[in-house]
Amino acid sequence: MSQWSPWKRKIAVTGLSGAGKTVFLLSLLQHIELFRPDRLRISPPGAELRGFKELPPSGGGASFPRKALRARLMEENAPMWPEKTRDVHHYSCSFRYTGWTVWEKLKRSLIRIGGLLTLPGIGLSETVDLDFLDFPGERLADVDIARYGDYASWADQILEHWTSYSRTRERLAGYLDLVARDGADEEAILDAYKNALTGMLLDKNQIITPSTFSLGVEDGGVFGKPDVLDRGRRRLAGLAGEEFSPLPRECRGARPDLADAFAQRYRHYREQVVLPLFDSFSECDRIILLLDIPGILSGGVGRLNDAGDLIDNLASVLRPSKWHNFFSGVENIAFVAAKCDLVHNLDHDNLMSLLEDIMRPARNRLPDIGFTPVIVSAWVSSRSLASGDGRRILEGVPLRGNPEMAARTFVVPELPSEWPADWAAEDPAYSYPRLAPGRLANRWQAPAHFGMEKILDFILSARPGTD
Ligand SMILES: Nc1nc2c(ncn2[C@@H]2O[C@H](COP(=O)(O)OP(=O)(O)OP(=O)(O)O)[C@@H](O)[C@H]2O)c(=O)[nH]1
Ligand SMILES: [Mg+2]
Questions:
Q1: N or C: which terminal CB in the chain sees fewer CB atoms within 10 Å?
Q2: Nearest ligand 1 atom to alpha carbon 435
């Protein structure tokens, strides 16, 4: 059992699928366990992390498969990135942190612990317990389901989201035509909805909801080639035997029986799949939200719209920590521009501007939560080269079509300081390569990183306003 510690932090690592959550957590744990002050310059100078211990995962869920993931990255000839995550994973650990002064420890001992106030003087221990949560990013697309307890509000909201962008509106047109007609049966309606979702997935949209469509239920199968061929007919829009789709207001009025059936299935889905995850975010003190800005640029403007809407919606379901709820709830969010090794060093300032632009609406919406923007690469797999002519050149090992794992150079786009107005997926002006991971030579090595010390500072910092 974990020893009781006043410095317990629950941390959710969040972000859309492919944002880099699993790689990030794996790297963070290697750096904490194998702490070296010359590799991870945490604050204040001279502070150390010692006595790392893995603890049984809290939360009762599946354990983060750290060893298996690390083994893939140690493969001799071809180290491999983690497979995409299919289930919610927990990881708990503790260590001793030597960076606090007696005065800071005293201040911190006044801060809430699990909803209780401790007395000053108790808990001068420097042991820090961390509980992490990693999950499949597809589930974030259900954020509107978490937000709305009633089916009708969700249906209006999600249809408004999709119809406000021309490409998703086109994808939805067949479905909306069908439900506007009298007499379409339930199966045809669900098939038309799944056909629309298939089109959106092919367009690289990430707000695909219910997320069982792209991911299945627990530890489910991921949408693949056979699903493209049958336009998603065998995928689930909800729970097995209890599927639903968003019916427009007029259709709900004209087909009250169908609307009622969908509303009931919506409620079950919300209770069984969505709320357990989103409630656990609000139980966290800190949220680390990863954004894959090179991936958003490579994916076209639809990806930016999805990421922006998703952050905004996520902000509306997070419960800020306040005195009247005994300081339980979210204290601080780190907005992390992940995979910054894919952006040339010369463009890191612009990367920060793009990050700040995308987080601004959420920051304005949540004045009681601290916001910390950070640029990070959890697993540096390339290096920036000087070109002499302004071109941005990286050196790395291409992920595909490269059995001998030979490094080569890539010209990557010069990052703009503002988001472009409109651009398509794979537009060469905004596309970034996918690289093979830098290999871990052995279990005692931590990967090359950029900026991970800022993450530790963020995790170990006091509540906003108490320093
Ligand atoms: N170059 C580089 N690529 C990275 C880095 N971190 C992640 N990646 C790439 O991003 C991909 C996705 O990373 P994951 O950590 O699996 O993403 P995830 O957010 O856990 O995705 P889901 O499990 O689907 O939710 C990896 O397979 C790598 O190709 C990084 O620091 N540098
Ligand atoms: Mg993952």
A1: N
A2: 1
Q: Are strands 332-337 and 370-375 parallel, antiparallel or unpaired?
A: parallel
Residue 449 beta carbon below 6 angstroms from any ligand 1 atom: no
For residue 295, report the distance from its CA to the centre of ligand 1, in Å. Answer: 10
- The pLDDT-based confidence of 214 (bands split at 50, 70, 90) is very high
Q: What are phi and psi of 135, to 5 degrees?
A: -155, 165
User: Quick check: 339 and 449 in contact, CB under 8 A?
Assistant: no
In contact, 281 and 316? CB cutoff 8 Å: no
Torsions phi, psi for 427 (to 5 deg)? -60, 120
Neighbours of ion ligand 2 (CB under 5 A): 21-22, 85
With pLDDT > 70 as the criterion, what percentage of the chain qualifies?
89
Question: Is residue 238 within 8 Å of residue 262, measured between CB atoms?
Answer: no
Say if ligand 1 is within 6 A of residue 434 CB: yes
End-to-end CA distance of the chain: 31
82 lines ligand 1 (CB under 6 A): yes
Nearest CA to ligand 1 atom 30: 339
Backbone angles phi, psi at 64, to 5 degrees: -60, 120
pLDDT at 115 over 60: no
Residue 226: asked if its preceding bond is cis (omega within 30°), the reply is no
Q: Model confidence over 44-54: pLDDT tens digits? A: 888 889 999 99
Ligand 1 neighbour 23 (Cβ under 6 A): yes
Kindly list the domain boundaries of the chain, sorted by start residue.
7-135+283-382+437-460, 144-273
DSSP 325: G
Query: 104, 109, 112, 111: which is closest to 120 by C-alpha?
Result: 109
- The reply to whether ligand 1 has any atom less than 6 angstroms from the CB of 378 is yes
Q: Check pocket membership of 274 for ligand 1, CB cut-off 6 A.
A: no
Alpha-carbon distance of 432 to 86, in angstroms, equals 26
What fold is seen in the domain 7-135+283-382+437-460?
A: Rossmann fold (3.40.50)
Specify the ligand 1 atom closest to the Cα of 342: 1
Q: What is the reported pTM? A: 0.91
Residue 201: its pLDDT value, please?
93
